[in-house]
Specification:
alpha/beta; 23% helix; 311 residues; single chain; seven-stranded mixed β-sheet; 30% strand
Length: 311
């Protein structure tokens, strides 16, 4: 059986299950892996390889880590790949490389296109209270997340789903969906389907400031927001001039509307915060410069906190 020659392009942990799935599939030969350069990480800022590099190195795969992927176009041309598979690479790939493989570039996208395009597609369905999200296997074109679709797979969003847990679920779902989809596409069994651009929403890259909590919003909306911002950029607020991260909240909201939005109070010995509509029960939090704590631990050490207005 002739194997399909492919180049794998990816960087973070989200990419790893797809890489391993292709490595384990006899229908494919990975002729090279492209990932981001090693980056400083941790308190020591020691140069650290991206997760894809760690896996690729353990298999002895040919590897490239260019600052810009366009720098290695001649190397890629010499490898003559049938297809390139891109999973969370974190670089824009120029059209000159997208058109280089005989069958183009196939992407594992972490949402059900065309609903969410862009960088924060894991957070968006949680914030908006969607019941379902999933992955889309698609062909890449010169604009972001607009290419024709090959196949989709759905994931039901749990009531306690966070962006972190969703990343794990979708990375595994993508890995299960990718090999057969790729083989069917390369064999001519799939006709790519154009997206309906009228249904598309663009969700940009999150910055630290995007995690600030608006206490005028409803408690249910803030509860979803906290889960969506886990663990980057974290949902946070201000208290006495310091940043306070709200790490975990109870999925149940309390129908109390007698306080000023943002005001902290005790509810059945639990830390509660009044929101624009109803109140939120906080389970875990972290004050700037301190370690994460349960709300009970925090209150014991900060009795003056109760009655403060956050924000």
């Amino acid at each position: 059986m002739k194997k399909h020659r492919l180049i794998f392009v990816g960087t973070p942990k989200f990419s790893v299950p797809s890489l391993k799935a292709l490595l384990d599939d006899v229908r494919f030969e990975i002729v090279a892996v492209i990932t981001q350069p090693d980056m400083p990480a941790g308190r020591s800022m020691e140069l650290t390889p991206p997760p894809v590099k760690v896996v690729a190195s353990s298999y002895g795969l040919k590897m490239f880590q260019p600052p810009k992927i366009s720098h290695i176009i001649d190397d890629l041309r010499e490898l003559a790949p049938d297809v390139m598979v891109v999973v969370a690479y974190a670089q824009i790939i120029p059209e000159s490389i997208l058109s280089l493989p005989a069958f183009g570039c196939v992407n594992v996208h972490g949402s059900l296109l065309p609903k969410y395009r862009g960088a924060s597609v894991l957070q968006a369905p949680i914030i908006h209270g969607d019941d379902t999200t999933g992955v889309t296997i698609m062909l890449m074109d010169k604009t972001l997340d607009t290419g024709p679709m090959l196949r989709q797979a759905k994931h039901l969003i749990k009531s306690d789903e966070t962006a972190d847990s969703l990343a794990v679920a979708l990375s595994e779902l993508g890995a299960r969906t990718l090999p057969d989809t790729l083989a069917d596409y390369l064999s001519g069994l799939i006709t790519p389907q154009a997206q309906d651009n009228t249904l598309a929403n663009y969700v940009g890259r999150l910055e630290k400031k995007d995690g600030i909590i608006d206490w005028l919003a409803s408690a249910k909306n803030i509860e979803r927001f906290v889960r969506a911002m886990t663990s980057w950029p974290s949902a946070w607020t201000w208290t006495a001039g310091k940043q306070l991260k709200i790490l975990e909240v109870d999925p149940r909201v309390v129908e109390i509307n007698s306080q000023k939005p943002g005001k902290t109070f005790l509810y059945n010995s639990c830390l509660a915060v009044q929101c624009g509509t109803d109140s939120l029960l906080v389970r875990r939090l972290q004050l700037e410069g301190k370690k994460p704590m349960t709300s009970e631990e925090f209150i014991r050490g900060h009795k003056e906190f109760i009655g403060n207005v956050l924000g």
